[in-house]
Amino acid sequence: MRTGLMMGAALMALLPLTAQAEAPVVTKQVYQLHQKLLTLDSHLDTPASLDLPGWSIEEGHEVHGDYTQVDLPRMKKGGLDGGFWAIYTGQGPVTVEGFRKARDFAILRGLSIRNMVAADPANFALALEAKDAAPIAAAGKRVVYLSIENAYPLGEDVTLLKTFYDIGVRVSGFAHFAHNQFADSSTDPSGKPRFGGLSPLGKELLKEMNRLGIVPDASHSSDQVLDDLLALSTTPILLTHSGCKAVYGHPRNIDDDHLKALAAKGGVIQMNAYGTYLRASKPNPQRQEALKALFGQLREDAKLSPEKRAELLAKRQEIDRLYPDTDRPTFDDFMAHMLHALKVVGPDHVGVGADWDGGGGVVGMEDVVDLPKITAALLKAGYSEADIQKIWSGNVLRVLAANEAGKGK
């Protein structure tokens, strides 16, 4: 069961990348400021890498070598103190058997994150409350909050969320690429709503989140789900990795009215760096066909051995050579979404959730080593150090603290 679901992790590690372009120059002064800030990313798909054969978070990796984007050496170099490490489960059949397999996989993925922390207490520390982040970072360790991307593994038993809370989960989404038992997705292949927002079971799940103090995450869910969350949640809402429809009208992004409504309820949008959601790109059919064939081969493997992974990486690199992706979104495209959100709702309601190791990354910001460029761009745009600290962690921690304070109410 577990190896079958692990294919999603390997797929994420084979997403499109190409050579870097120019981005903001980071001076020594800006770099020192960035390193001083408490920096958290609200959506790290890096736990998928933890279960790859032969891969270690302790070792430095090259983004154009194995296509991963986060490891301990790169976090240190890029000044990323940590964030929310996602338990991601791909959407499977909405059946008892599907729920069981997803549940078992998700619990094991959560344990993989906990094992990462336990294996290196000198460099990683589990965070359970908003107040935990600053002292962990001050001690030179990486901050590890847990989150759930896609609540599908909970099946039809919302009380199972308590098990994940006990593992350490403090943020949870509802749906992913397709509708599930809890909510409508913004990108369901049918193109049609199923519930018109949260399902009755989804409303029960929200109540359980509010009871436990888990932050509700509306990323990947439809606008109508966000409407329901804003109307029904007793605590502020987070969009852990999203963008702005005013910049690019993709279903995964939200419009200005929703941005303002989110902010009015104390919520925060964390800006995504997933290129497909930032702007339209020119079609590259040969590349897409080659990647489709590679992914199909990947799905056919019951287990990914180190040798098989090396073979697939070599094939992926050959695809990059033969059919380069010459129209990838850039750092400027990412900043266009961030600066628009800042213009609409201000620096109290915007943060960073780049979707590293889950498809995030743009030309000029390929992995977490490039994160100081965001600080440089925000300074150039006129934002103060205090504003930038809010954007990098203050806002998401405020939302977390508000959910803790509202627990059980």
Defining key terms:
409 residues, TIM Barrel, six-stranded parallel beta sheet, 17 helices, globular, disordered N terminus, Pept_M19, metallodipeptidase activity
Question: Could you explain how this protein is built, in words?
Answer:
This is Membrane dipeptidase. Keywords: Signal. One of its GO terms (biological process) is proteolysis. Residues 1-21 form the signal peptide. With 409 residues, the chain is an alpha/beta fold. It has one domain: TIM Barrel (Alpha-Beta Barrel), CATH 3.20.20. Helices cover 44% and strands 10% of the residues. Strands 1, 2, 3, 4, 5 and 6 form a 6-stranded parallel β-sheet that branches. A 3-stranded parallel β-sheet has the order 7-8-9, sandwiched between helices. β7, α12 (256-264) and β8 (268-271) form a beta-alpha-beta unit. The radius of gyration is 20 Å and the shape is globular.
Number of domains: 1
Q: Number of helix segments? A: 17
Question: How helical, in percent, are the residues?
Answer: 40-55%
Determine the structural class based on helices, strands and strand pairing.
Answer: alpha/beta
What shape does the CA trace take? Answer: globular
Q: What Rg do the Cα atoms give?
A: 20 Å
- The low-confidence runs, each spanning 5 or more residues with pLDDT under 50, are 1-21
Distance between the termini: 38 Å
How are helices and strands ordered from N to C?
A: HHHEHHHEHEHEHEHEHEHEHHHEHH
CATH-defined fold name:
TIM Barrel
What is the residue-averaged pLDDT? 93
Architecture per CATH nomenclature, i.e. the level-2 architecture: Alpha-Beta Barrel
The CATH class name reads Alpha Beta
The oligomeric state is single chain
Strand content: 5-15%
What name goes with the CATH superfamily?
A: Metal-dependent hydrolases
How many β-strands, per DSSP? 9
What profile does the largest beta sheet have? 6 strands, parallel
